[in-house]
User: Which sequence fits this backbone?
């Protein structure tokens, strides 16, 4: 039985082989016939537009697929470049901030080296701006030697304000623009003095300037640092830059004039300050204040200095008429 099946399979394969061989021979014979070639050429010519159209469609589809792949690749590259650009921009901003802070600190250190006073470098950590007050909070206090009344200076030797409250590790500084701030200012051009008071708008007012003095826009004003008798000193050291004159108001009927100043320090953008620790302004300690020694001419207990008697003007006596 097995041999029979094998014989049948071999016979079937032989038949298929012979059929294929005969078909190939016939096709070869037909293909060499001129009529068949003409027929093939006609069919090919008839289907050539369809073949071209199909080729165009195939090429278009391939181009679309390639374009989609390219767009996707470009999208990925663009996202990567955008992220890198944002990282570089953030890094550049950080480096710019470090450079600016470095320049500010360098300016303060140079100012500190030129001062004759002991100072403490501080950082502004908070601002307190309200309808009536202008203050900043610094990161050092009594533990670093800062006391109420100490003077705060910004870069360039510009006066910023005075310490009003002190804690162990922080302090509050009243700025020049505070409504309660008052400084005796002096024009650098002619040494004319006036009272500089703060305004919440940011411009300082210099009042009580002698009307006979010349005040011009652009003149600079510094602290006068006036010292009075009996050891009384100005609360501010002499020569600190207060601001620059931006306007002058005069009244022909007044004996004084008023100037408006732009503060020398950018008080709304303070970051770093120097606090002068060893300047003693205002009234001297109570034990050093002068007292009235009376008419006896003896020093009181503690050898405090005596008040100088105030001179009293005496009317001049008119000459008697000659007989």
Assistant:
């Amino acid at each position: 039985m097995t041999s029979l099946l094998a014989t049948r399979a071999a016979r079937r394969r032989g038949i298929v082989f012979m059929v294929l061989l005969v078909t190939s021979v016939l096709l070869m014979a037909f293909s060499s016939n001129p009529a068949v070639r003409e027929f093939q050429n006609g069919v090919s010519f008839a289907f050539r537009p369809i073949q071209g159209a199909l080729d165009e469609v195939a090429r278009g589809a391939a181009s679309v697929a390639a374009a989609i792949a390219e767009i996707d690749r470009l999208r990925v590259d663009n996202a990567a470049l955008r992220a890198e650009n944002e990282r570089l921009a953030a890094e550049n901003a950080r480096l710019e901030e470090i450079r600016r802070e470095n320049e500010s600190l360098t300016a303060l250190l140079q100012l500190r080296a030129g001062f004759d006073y002991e100072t403490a470098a501080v950082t502004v950590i908070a601002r307190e701006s309200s309808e009536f007050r202008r203050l900043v909070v610094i990161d050092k206090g009594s533990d670093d030697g800062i006391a109420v009344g100490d003077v705060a200076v910004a870069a360039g030797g510009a006066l910023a304000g005075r310490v009003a409250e002190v804690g162990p590790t922080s302090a509050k500084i009243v700025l020049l623009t505070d409504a309660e701030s008052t400084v005796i200012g002096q024009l650098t051009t002619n040494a004319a003095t006036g009272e500089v008071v703060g305004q919440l708008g940011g411009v300082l007012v210099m009042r009580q300037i002698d009307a006979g003095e010349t005040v011009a826009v652009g003149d600079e004003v510094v602290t006068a640092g006036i010292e009075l008798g009996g050891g009384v000193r100005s609360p501010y050291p002499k020569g600190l830059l207060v601001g620059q004159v931006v306007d002058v108001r005069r009244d022909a009927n007044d004996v004084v004039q008023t100037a408006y100043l732009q503060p020398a320090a950018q008080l709304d953008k303070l970051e770093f300050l120097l606090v002068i620790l060893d300047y003693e302004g205002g009234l001297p300690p109570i034990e050093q204040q002068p007292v009235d020694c009376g008419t006896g001419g003896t020093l009181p207990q503690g050898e405090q200095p005596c008040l100088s008697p105030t001179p009293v003007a005496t009317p001049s006596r008119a000459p008697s008429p000659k007989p």
Q: What stands out?
A: The domain at 119-276 is CATH 2.40.10.350 (Thrombin, subunit H). The mean pLDDT is 79. Residues 34-114 form the longest helix (81 residues). Residues 137 and 175 are 11 Å apart (CA to CA).
